[in-house]
Every structure is written in C-alpha cells, then in structure tokens.
Amino acid sequence: MQIIEFVRHLDKHIGDLIAHFGPWSYLILFLIIFAETGLVVMPFLPGDTLLFAAGMAAAGLFPGAELNIFILLVTLSLAPLVGDTVNYHMGRYFGPRVFKGDGGRFFKKSNLEKTQAFFAKHGGKAVIIARWVPVVRTFAPFVAGMGSMRYKDFFAFSLIGALLWVWVCTLAGYFLGQIPIVRANFEYAMLALIFASGGPVLFDLLKHRREAKREAAALTESETRP
Q: Is the pLDDT of residue 78 over 70?
C-alpha cells in the first residue's frame, strides 16, 4: 500500500525531493532507476512513473523544483544501462545457485520462469521489449546472464532499450507537462501510465491462470473417467 500511495502522490514526493536536495536530485533519481533495473530484489520500484514525473518536473510543473532536461536525460539513460550490467553479471555468477531451491521470498521461481518464457519467445530482442514490462525488465538481465547470451550482444540490446525507455517516458512527461489539462490532472495521468505499463503483466497473469484452470479441469476429467 505504501508503494501505491507513493506513486499516486508522486507529484508531491518528487517536488519535495527536488526542492530539498537540489542538484543531488539527479543522483537520487539515478539510484532509484538503477535499483529497479540492477537489483533483482527491487522490481516493485515505480520506474515508468518516476521517469514521467521527472520529465514533468523538467517542464516546470513543480515551482521551486526544476530540473534540466538535458542533464536529466543523460543521467537517467546511464542508470538502467549500469543497472543492467550489474544485474547481468549477478545472474551469471549467482543465478544458478539462487534458483537451485525454491528461490526464496525475493527470487521467486515464477518470475524466473515468466522471464525465461519471454526470452524463448523473443530472443535477444527480449532485452529491449522487457524494458516496457514491469518486473520482467528487472529479471531480464539476470536471466540473460544465466543463459548463453554474450555480454557484448546483451549490452547492445540493453543500450537500445535503455535509450528508448528513458527518452520516451521522460520526454512524454516533459512535453505533456506543458499542457494545462495534463498539469491539472497529474494524478490521473500517473494512474493511466501505471495501467498502460502494468496492463500487459496483468493480462499475462490472467491468461496463465485460465490455462492452469483448463489444465486442472482436463486432468480431473481424465481421472474421473471409467
């Protein structure tokens, strides 16, 4: 619930953060995006909405809490790239041991299996596509490190994905933040973005749940046949 409240009132939080920390806000935003993409135990951080809100801050939405859009784009572009690199090497060196058992509370096998299926379907492009799917984007570099993908190939896909994700989300916030109706309805814009980014995950979960129910029903029917 605290994460949901944080995202719902991100306009207040990010405005206060920038006003309080000034230039250090760039480093704080860098660390948050780095943590979401680089630390496999933090897939719950609000990356999409944070980029959008930071772009709106650069557009001057929050008085006394302005950011430079060019410095912001460079800083935030580096964050997922560094995060992906750390995550990739963590997967390479620790992945097999972490998921040898049930994975524990943070390293859930269900998340691993979902990401592995994503890679099987999309190949190397999964690194780019996963950037737009919460949770999956956190596990994608880890799984790539566990697999046979060479680092230079991974880095190329990661670079493209990082630039697209950061620039699209941040510039969307920057330009939309200059539209009066969007500025006046910031919370609704955030909720729409959350739905757009989380929708694919919800759809996938519902799809897998329906398939599991069908398989269970088919198994029950076969067992009850004379």
A: yes
Q: Which is it for the CA torsion 168, 6, 133, 196, positive or negative?
A: negative
* Amino acid at residue number 145: G
pLDDT on residue 50: 84
Residues sharing a CB contact under 8 Å with residue 154, sequence separation 6 or more, in sequence order:
84, 88, 124, 127, 141, 144, 145
Alpha-carbon gap, residue 142 to 175, rounded angstroms: 33
199 burial class (0-12, 13-18, 19+ CB within 10 angstroms)? exposed
Which structural domain range is residue 173 located in? 2-224
Overall domain count for the chain:
1
- The model's confidence at residue 44, banded by pLDDT at 50, 70 and 90, is low
